[in-house]
Automatic annotation (TrEMBL):
This is LysE family transporter. It is a multi-pass membrane protein. It is found in: Cell membrane. It comes from the Bacteria. Coiled coil: none annotated. Its main location: membrane. The chain crosses the membrane at residues 40-64, 71-89, 146-171, 178-200. It comes from Nonomuraea helvata.
Length: 203
């Protein structure tokens, strides 16, 4: 069982540390508002990942290959990413003096969860997790093994939320205002790219 837990810790680190839309939004908010806004997006995304994990490990991931479920969720996720990208470019081009306080008051947790839930392809990843556990154990994954995998992944993911938000907060302190605006614009552009990639994957 410890092998499954350690495997999950490692996979969780790789999954979360890979640059993506959630990191881009965490960075965009963090360079404006500091640790709190960045951490909120990370934790919200983790909550969404937990939902996909439970569905995938429960074996219901195949349901999300049905276009009637997958297409609306993916379209909603694309629209959300595109809106965030445009917002990032706008805020970089026309910064407001009260930007840090506005960022702090927004629902970063809800937004992070929506970003995760708006990508139904995550459930495909989790549907394959049972196979990964089976390959480690050399047998069909039981409930205890899947629970250990889920626990290890979430432990690693929660630790990453603190690490990621902390690094962003340190970066914020080191950047001059112009660099903050440029980084915010880059994050906005990245979010638009991720939206386009999600559309391409849907098509």
């Amino acid at each position: 069982m410890s092998e499954v837990f350690l495997l999950a810790l490692w996979i969780g680190l790789l999954f979360n540390a890979a640059p993506g839309a959630v990191f881009s939004e965490s960075l965009r908010r963090g360079v404006r508002g500091g640790f709190g806004p960045a951490f909120a997006v990370q934790v919200g995304s983790l909550a969404g990942d937990a939902v996909w994990a439970l569905l995938g490990l429960a074996g219901v991931g195949a349901l999300f290959t049905v276009p009637a479920l997958r297409v609306p969720l993916t379209v909603a996720g694309c629209l959300l990413l595109a809106w965030l990208g445009v917002t990032g470019l706008r805020d970089a081009a026309f910064p407001r003096p009260d930007a840090p306080s506005r960022v702090s008051r927004r629902g970063g947790v809800t937004l992070g969860a929506a970003m995760s839930l708006g990508n139904p392809w995550n459930v495909v990843y989790w549907s394959g997790a049972a196979g990964a556990v089976s390959s480690v154990l050399g047998e069909d994954a039981g409930l205890a093994s899947l629970a250990a995998f889920f626990t290890g992944f979430m432990t690693s993911s929660l630790a990453w939320c603190f690490v990621c938000a902390g690094l962003i907060a340190l970066l914020r302190r080191a950047l001059p205002p112009l660099a903050v605006r440029l980084l915010e614009a880059a994050c906005g552009a990245a979010l638009l790219v991720f939206a386009a990639l999600l559309v391409a994957r849907l098509l």
